[in-house]
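User: Quick sanity check before I run a bigger batch. Here is a single chain. Can you write out its predicted 3D structure?
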Amino acid sequence: MTELVNIEDDKAPDNPEAATAAAVARHVAEQRRARRLSLDALARLSGVSKGMLVQIENARSNPSIGTLCRVAAALGVSVAALVDLGSQDVVRLVRPGEAARLWAGPEGGTAVLLVGSDGPDMLELWSWELKPRERHVSDPHPPGTRELLHVTAGTLLLEVDGRPHEVPAGTSALLHSDRPHAYACKGTRPVRFNMVVMEPHATMRRS
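Assistant: Done. Predicted structure follows.
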C-alpha cells in the first residue's frame, strides 16, 4: 500500500500533508492516553507495530489509510476524528484546504477524506481519483462496514473477495467492505468517484 511522502523535514503550516500528520499525531496520542493504553497495548490491539505508532505520534510520516483504519478501530473512534474533521456543531463546513488527503498514488492519484462524523455510527465522505495503472488495495474493515460508490468519470475496476466488477461513469455501487477489496483504474483515462463509508457502532472495538 502506498504511503504518503515522509514529511519529517517539512512541517510548514501551508503543507497539507504536514498539517494532517500533526493532527493525527496529536489525536492518536490524546486518545491513547485517555484510554490509559501504552504504545505496546495499542500495538497489540491495532496490529500496527510499536515503531510505526511512535512515528505517527511524533508526526514523522503520514500513515496509510489501512493503518489509520486499524488505529482508529482499536481506539474506538473514526478516522475523521483522528484527522480532526469531527465536530459537535449542528453544521460543520469543511473547506477545500481543510479536507485531508490520506493517499497518494504513484501516478498522481489521490484519496481525500472530505468530511466525516464521529460515533456512535461513523460516516465518511471521500473523493477518489485513480490514474491509469493505479490500484489501491484495502484490508477488510470491521464487520458490518458498507461503502457506497458513484463514478463520475472513467471506469472503476472494483474488486471484492477477488471478484472484479466494472463500474463505468454514471454508475453507482454498494459493497460490503468487511472483506478484502481493491479499487483500480480501468483503461487509459483517470477514474474519479465519490465514496461514502458507513461503520456501525456495534463493530467498534473498545478498549
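The domain at 96-203 is CATH 2.60.120.10 (Jelly Rolls).

User: Great, the batch can go ahead then.
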